[in-house]
Amino acid sequence: MKSYIRDRVRACVKCQRGKIFQHTKALLGTFSKPDARFSHIHLDFIGRLPFSEAKQYCLTIKDRFTTWSEAIPTSDMSSDTIEQALVNGWKSRLGTPVTITTDNGRNVESTLFCELTNISFSHRIHSAAYHPQSNGMTETLHRHL
Question: What's residue 16's pLDDT?
Fold first, then answer.
């Protein structure tokens, strides 16, 4: 009976025209391939990990062009810690990125992190809220760690 009703409704033109679509699906967006190494990076945190030298979080950074990955151990997830880890652990060796992709966490939405990206002339891209696959490069890195 259920299959009969389903087939009947699918065949009915009036039923299909009156059907209300609950979910409108947007096209999937993709990042364009950067033209230089270390110009587009993805940032995220992994943690709470077991303590090791008073560090319990890792700032994970992955380059989009070369897929070079780094995990910088930190004691907390504050924006001040991100700034220090990014400047001392990434920018001092590999240069300032043109584009930084982050999630919508409070630590990367702070005024300090916004000032840091403005001073270094970096463009920020936010991943979709409650959708970790939109920053999949770092999520894949977290699986491997």
Answer: 76
